[in-house]
Amino acid sequence: MKILFAASEVHPFAKTGGLGDVAGALPQALAALGHEVAIVLPLYPRVRRRGDVRTVVAEKVSCRFAHENRPFRLLRTELKDCPNVAVYLVENPWIFEAEEAFYGVEPGSYGDGHLRFLYFARALCEIPKAVDFFPSVFHLNDWQTALVAPLLRTVYKGEPRYRQTATVLTIHNLAYQGVFERADLDHAGIPGFLLAEGRLLEKGLGNLLAGGLRFADAVTTVSRSYAEEILGKEHGGGLEGLLQWRRPLLTGIVNGLDTKTWDPESDPHLPAHYTKDDFAGKARCKAELLQRSGLTPTDGPVFGVVSRLVGQKGLELVVPVMHELLGFDPSVRFVLLGSGEPELEQAFRRLAEHHPGRAAARLAFDAPFSSLVEAGSDFFLMPSLFEPCGLNQLISMRYGTPPIVRAVGGLKDTVTDATETTLSLGRATGFVFHDYSVPALAQAVKRALAVYRSPFDLDRMRRAGMASDWSWTKSAAEYIAVYEAALARRTSGHHLKEVLSGMPEEPIEVELPALAQVPEGYPRDSLTLIPFDPTTLFIGWELGGPITSRLFEALSEEQRRVLTYSVVLTEIDTGRVDRAEAAGFANQHFAAVRAGARYRAELWLNRPGIGSVLLLAHGAVSMPSDVRPREA
Ligand code: ADP
Q1: pLDDT at position 426
Q2: Which residues have CB under 8 Å from 356's CB, separation 6+?
Q3: Sheet holding 179-180: strands in order across?
Q4: CATH of domain 280-467
Q5: How far is the CA of 145 from the centre of ligand 1 (A)?
Q6: Residue 572 Cα, ligand 1 centroid: separation in angstroms?
């Protein structure tokens, strides 16, 4: 089977969380089962800076976006140790490299995250044509790629080579749905007939995940329990009704782990290695973790956390529980690695300040250090409010560090609670508690302390976790079954009858407005002036070529966030100068001008704290003079 796997993050190229891990590992497992797999992700600045060998596959792939052709360059690279999985990188510096963050949702960011993924979805539909790889299955992941499902069934329905292509959409976290104003989708050039309730709109707003769920041929999520939970109000994120309707298409498949990357026997980030039969190396990891965290050595237990610091992860429960324990038991240590919401960062900073030598908070994203926390801790805390699957508890079990988790989503499905029975059978792998409350977590931590004092039980728990099979092989086979079901549905098409009824007949693509006359191909580093009507001048710019990219590269992330442009328009015959400011994500400006006059324009880049610099200039353009009299 040919599978095109589309994701906004793929380990090791770009990762902020579990999606990146999955997208880096599942395709390899599918390939190992004999399938032909290709991955697509955007070329972000972080990806560009990597030293991967890349080849250009296509120089200029046409891509309709915002009512224009905005081509991208397609590069190809490979996954280390897995050269048979092609990794395609979509390069459009202006779309994907205007800022460092992938999602454009961080404070002070351009906030153009929706635009880049609306573009990405469009690019994804073009890639099979550019590389002649027409997949049986388009495997889409989360809202960032969900739009491909509606696009293939509508805008691209005339493409015969997509007739046999099924779409499978995986929900990695329903908390992120890609919700945007209708006007934004309109601006991006999404055809008007899709901008309706029951299609891409959900309660008046664009909702890319909802749109994908309606049009996909199969839907999966990353654990069995989460697949059940999202049908209810508490975890359904407002889409529970839609998900109940899609229930026959919905399957929960638990995530595996990339066991080559996450292996205490070979992890290059550990000072010593170990196996389930010899924990000597784990003790050295613990000593190193304490030393590198500025904590004093101890015979007592170390509690570790590696997490995005967001409400979902239940870390607000950890602060009071650890505060009390650290005050009460001088042998306990606590290490947190994470970054995110300022209030949580502050709470852990305070905890560390309050318990010097006993508690540490490293507020960063640091992959090598995350290995050390997983290996060097005795217990791993993950009391999530909700958890679609969770990888950290899998990693901790593989590293012989029993996790303390709440009975929710994938945590419930993957951790076996330490009870008298499971302990005596050697099956216990962690501590599971139910209520989302401080006393419930405290109670679970108490149980962990008791096991810590019983080395026999602790060793058995460690071994049970390390012996469990967290590899992708089994889950990959389940995905293949879902792909096959999706293909069968694609052929029958019944499941889409309701959504597709009332769609316009072909040709389905909207007419491009007059602006489409902008030269095909959009050479980079160009400033374009086009009289839009006698008193309106369209000024558009395309950056990221050899002249401007060096300027942008020299800027820090912070500077890129706050930059603006000035469009300086000079009326040639009178010398009158008009100046307009444009936000950093803009690439066009409409200027009110005088009919019949001649203009030249300059585009300046304003870098706060550094000064302005001229980017591009354009010579004389004459406006038409025939202002037609207004109709009475
Ligand atoms: P989520 O996807 O919700 O963030 P998961 O447990 O599924 O949670 O996956 C988290 C992944 O991100 C793991 O690989 C984890 O090690 C990694 N991770 C999270 N925070 C950090 C951090 N601060 N530094 C390094 N890795 C991190």
Answers
A1: 96
A2: none
A3: 179-180, 205-207, 201-202
A4: 3.40.50.2000
A5: 21
A6: 57
Give 421 Cα–ligand 1 centroid separation in angstroms. 32
Q: Is 169 helix (H, G, I), strand (E, B) or coil?
A: strand
Interval 251-299: pLDDT, tens: 999 999 988 889 999 999 999 999 999 999 999 999 999 999 999 999 9
Is residue 271 helix, strand or coil?
A: coil
Say whether pLDDT at 630 is over 50.
Answer: no
Alpha carbon of residue 344 to chain centroid: 21
301 CA to middle of ligand 1, Å? Answer: 23
C-beta 339 within 6 A of ligand 1:
yes
pLDDT value for 542: 79
357 phi-psi bin (left φ>0, alpha ψ -120 to 50, beta other): left
As a whole number of angstroms, the distance between CA 341 and CA 352 comes to: 17
Question: Which atom of ligand 1 approaches the CA of 255 most closely?
Answer: 7
Give bridge partners of residue 22 from the DSSP assignment.
none
What does the pLDDT look like over 120-173, one tens digit per residue?
999 999 999 999 999 999 999 999 999 999 999 999 988 899 999 999 999 999
* Structure-model confidence comparison of residues 529 and 26, the more confident one: 26
Instruction: Tell me which of 309, 392, 399 to substitute to probe ligand 1's pocket, judged by most ligand atoms within 8 Å of the beta carbon.
Output: 392
* Chain mean pLDDT for the chain: 90
Tell me whether domains 280-467 and 526-622 share a fold.
Answer: no
Tell me if 403 CB under 6 Å of ligand 1.
no
Fold entry, domain 526-622: Immunoglobulin-like (2.60.40)
What is the SS3 assignment for 362? strand
Hey, how many other C-beta atoms are within 10 angstroms of the C-beta on 570?
17
Closest ligand 1 atom to residue 362 Cα is 23
Which ligand 1 atom sits closest to the C-alpha of 367?
Answer: 25
The domain locations on the chain are: 2-256+475-500, 280-467, 526-622
pLDDT in tens, 378-415: 999 999 999 999 999 999 999 999 999 999 999 999 99
- Greatest Cα pair distance in the chain: 94
In whole angstroms, give the CA distance from residue 338 to residue 320: 18
Is domain 2-256+475-500 annotated with CATH 3.40.50.2000? yes
* Mean pLDDT along residues 579-585: 81
> In this structure, which residue's CA is closest to atom 12 in ligand 1?
17
Q: Is 544 in the pocket of ligand 1 (CB under 6 A)?
A: no
C-alpha of residue 269 to centroid of ligand 1, in Å: 16
Which two structure tokens, joined as six digits, stand for 158?
A: 């005339």
Whole-prediction pTM value? 0.79
162: its two tokens: 């997509």
532 lines ligand 1 (CB under 6 A): no
